[in-house]
Design brief:
Layout lengths: L14 H12 L4 E5 L5 E4 H17 L7 E5 L4 H13 L2 E3 L7 H11 L3 E4 L1 H10 L8 E4 L11 H9 L1 H4 L11 H14 L5 H4 L4 H7 L5 H4 L5 H13 L7 H9 L3 H5 L16 E6 L9 E5 H14 L7 E4 L3 H8 L3 E4 L12 H10 L2 E6 L1 H14 L8 E4 L6 H9 L6 E8 L2 E8 H10 L5 E6 L4 E5 L21 E6 L11 H7 E4 L2 E12 L5 E6 L4 E3 L2 E3 L1 H8 L5 E9 L6 E8 L5 H13 L9 E4 L15 H13 L4
Parallel strand pairs: 1-10, 3-4, 3-5, 5-6, 9-10, 9-11, 11-12, 12-13, 24-25
Antiparallel strand pairs: 1-2, 7-8, 13-14, 14-15, 15-20, 16-17, 17-19, 18-19, 19-20, 21-22, 23-24
Helix pairs in contact: 2-3, 2-6, 5-10, 8-13, 17-18, 18-19
Bound molecules: adenosine-5'-triphosphate.
The site of adenosine-5'-triphosphate (ATP) has 26 residues, from strand 13, strand 15, strand 19 and strand 20.
Organism: Nonomuraea phyllanthi
InterPro entries: AMP-bd_C_sf, AMP-binding_CS, AMP-dep_synth/lig_dom, ANL_N_sf, ATP-dep_AMP-bd_enzyme
Protein name: AMP-binding protein
């Protein structure tokens, strides 16, 4: 700011960054992040801030800058948090694609986002080369961990270079020592003499070949030589200990990216040209892809601020307490709200494979007060605790989101918590989070009092306005009051809030289906059916695209499934429609509890169904060994996939 710039014209900084910074100033020694796993360690706000400072400089050195879309594929841990915060600080835009998605979906997401920079662990880079992820758009490739067959800098090398250490203390092997320019020339010559091989030629041996030949091959198996935890731990150590010397090739890429001046000055400062303001795009998230391909969701810094404010209102994250989230991006939110983010030792590609014993020991060891997880994983955790008589006595709150919370899961979770602990079901979507919330006791009471009405989501949070409109599968361009349906009538849920994101990335059709213009605000169509009750509470009835369209009218999945969830021997149910819209036959697909006999479960399900008007017409029950679910939460049942499966089964006479 120049002396004569009026204060009001200074753009306010991103609130997320400001909050983390404030926390650091207030309590520098407080633990920002606690990593479990083989080598547990605690990282204070002060250490985190230093790491962010150094990493910001390192990324700038590589040419990452304001507005640059940057893929970030790094295992959960301090390194991921530091990189994400550093990118935000630079005003670069992290592209947060779910690593558990099918490879073709990841490729599609990245093609649409067209990121210029790609930061990833070796496994991610191998996939970049073998599967063409962001191949056309990315021109800066930074490896987190040891670089293997591809060119480009490592983050450790860039950090060292940004500190200027490699020139003063540790000249890279084979270099002439000397100035940065000498070094750059030397290595540049080296590169010209030995140009980077063609990506295809890089796939000469080892796991990368597996990936190239068999794109469906599981990444863990494919590149077993890059053990996840090891990479994370190495990186964490690098962050806090002195950085290792940079390889000269690393530097060349940095230099080529145009930061020669910074480097030759040996500057360890943080070259942030302009910190992002509220209106700058902060990141690109993706919907979970449970009803179709994932859609890119650009979120500005003001959207993140609104999310934080809404989350704050829920009171599920208290400053000074520890929070474990199995959905990793939430850990950033925890740090911004002054809590310690406990990073679970789990593979984010397969949340359901998380070992409940490891989660329990993390919760106990770090005195975790809040757990954030999706219903399926919570169910697994609660079953583990019930079988061993474990009570998670440090927990004050369990927050659950991503899919409706089934009553049997809620009861199981309650049984392993102290009596005073709260279970809070939070409703929202990638495009607007959070929208409403309800405590488990009220949820259970509402469901018992209104069987077949679906799942009560609670009252909208202050700042989020919710309405229900008539059901249509067409776009609704402009708001008019006659779109609304009366209280108690099921329709599509629409939301207006300061957290509602920008339109979808490069997807005008999906945007037209999801948005309703209303003067200076916009309504987001959730794609969910439900109703508002006379107490102002919102209810969930199912996804609009998954409703079953019979001759006698539409059936909502959650109306039916909640009625049958408690039948003995039933683990989960999914209602699907078979046949053309308007003439569909409702089919109930059932996942059984282990040991439950088919004939008995079928009889019990049909008997229960006959007792309720909503389900009385149900005749067909199929058994499925394990429902297809979304990659992020492993909790959203992919009913469109199940419907195709059911149609095939019925055609084959396997009813
Ligand atoms: N507490 C909850 N209870 C019931 N459903 C929930 C809850 N929280 C989230 N959901 C469901 O998750 C949806 C939002 O999920 P998300 O943003 O991850 O992607 P998605 O809409 O499932 O993805 P896609 O649009 O790609 O199919 C909501 O619209 C709702 O269906």
């Amino acid at each position: 700011m120049t002396p004569d710039t009026p204060a009001e014209t200074v753009p306010p900084a991103s609130e997320l960054i400001t909050r983390v910074r404030r926390r650091r100033l207030d309590l520098p020694g407080a633990v920002a992040c606690q990593v479990g796993g083989r080598t547990p360690r605690a990282v204070s706000y002060e250490e985190m801030a230093l790491a962010v400072q150094r990493t910001t400089a390192a990324l700038a050195l590589a040419g990452v800058g304001h507005g640059m879309r940057t893929v970030l594929l790094v295992y959960p841990g301090v390194e991921l948090g530091v990189l994400a915060l550093s990118l935000l600080r630079l005003g670069a835009v992290p592209v947060m694609v779910d690593p558990g998605l099918p490879y073709a979906d990841i490729r599609r997401c990245l093609e649409r986002a067209a990121p210029e920079a790609f930061i990833g662990v070796p496994l991610a880079h191998a996939a970049r080369l073998a599967l063409g992820w962001a191949r056309r758009s990315s021109r800066i490739a930074i490896t987190v961990g040891p670089r293997r067959l591809w060119p480009g800098p490592t983050i450790a090398g860039l950090r060292a270079a940004a500190q200027g250490r490699c020139f003063s203390g540790h000249p890279p092997t084979g270099s002439a020592g000397g100035s940065a320019a000498d070094l750059a020339n030397h290595r540049a010559n080296d590169l010209v003499d030995h140009p980077a091989p063609d990506p295809a030629a890089l796939l000469v041996d080892g796991p990368a070949v597996d990936l190239a030949n068999d794109p469906t091959h599981d990444m863990v198996a494919g590149l077993a030589s890059a053990p996840a935890a090891g990479l994370v731990d190495d990186s964490v150590t690098e962050l806090v200990n002195d950085p290792p010397t940079s390889s000269a090739t690393d530097l060349v890429t940095g230099l080529a990216a145009g930061s020669l001046k910074d480097l030759t000055a040996g500057s360890a400062g943080t070259p942030v040209a302009r910190e992002p303001g509220p209106d700058d795009v902060a990141l690109i998230a993706y919907t979970s892809g449970s009803t179709g391909p994932p859609k890119g969701v650009p979120l500005r810094h003001r959207h993140l601020t609104a999310q934080l404010d809404l989350l704050d209102e829920l009171g599920i994250i208290r400053p000074g307490t520890a929070m474990l989230s199995t959905f990793i991006p939430f850990a950033l939110g925890a740090a911004a709200l002054g809590a310690t983010a406990v990073i679970p030792d789990m593979d984010p590609r397969h949340p359901m494979r998380a070992d409940p014993a490891v989660l329990v020991s993390g919760i106990r060891r770090y005195g975790v007060a809040t757990v954030f997880a999706a219903p399926a994983l919570l169910d697994r955790l609660a079953r583990h605790c019930a079988a061993r008589g474990v009570v998670l006595d440090t927990l004050e709150c369990v927050a659950v989101a991503g899919a409706p919370l089934p009553l049997p899961t809620l009861e199981r979770v309650r049984a392993c918590l102290p009596a005073a602990a709260r279970v809070v079901s939070v409703y929202g979507a990638t495009e607007c989070l959070p929208v409403a919330a309800i405590e488990g006791r009220e949820l259970a009471a509402a469901r018992t009092a209104h069987p077949g009405a679906g799942t009560c989501l609670g009252r909208p949070l202050a700042g989020a306005e919710v309405r229900v409109i008539g059901v249509t599968d067409d776009p609704v361009g402009v708001w008019s009051d006659d779109l609304r349906v009366p209280t108690g009538t099921v329709g599509e849920i629409v939301v207006a809030s300061p957290a509602v994101s920008d339109p979808y990335l490069d997807d005008p059709r999906a945007t037209a289906m999801a948005r309703i213009a209303d003067g200076d605000r916009v309504w987001h169509r959730m794609g969910d059916l439900g109703h508002l009750d006379d107490q102002g509470r919102l209810w969930f009835a199912g996804r609009r695209s998954e409703r079953v369209r019979t001759r006698g009218g539409d059936l909502c999945t959650d109306h039916v499934e909640t009625l049958l969830a408690g039948v003995p021997g039933v683990r989960r149910t999914a209602l699907v429609g078979v046949g053309p819209a308007g003439e569909q036959r409702p089919v109930l697909v059932v996942e059984r509890e282990p040991g439950a006999r088919r004939a008995r479960v079928r009889a019990a399900v049909l008997e229960e169904a006959a007792r309720h008007p909503r389900t009385a017409a149900l005749r067909e029950v199929l058994f499925h060994p394990g429902f297809p679910v979304d990659a992020r939460h492993n909790s959203k049942i992919r009913r469109n996939v199940l419907a195709t499966w059911a149609a095939r089964r019925l055609r084959g006479g396997h009813g």
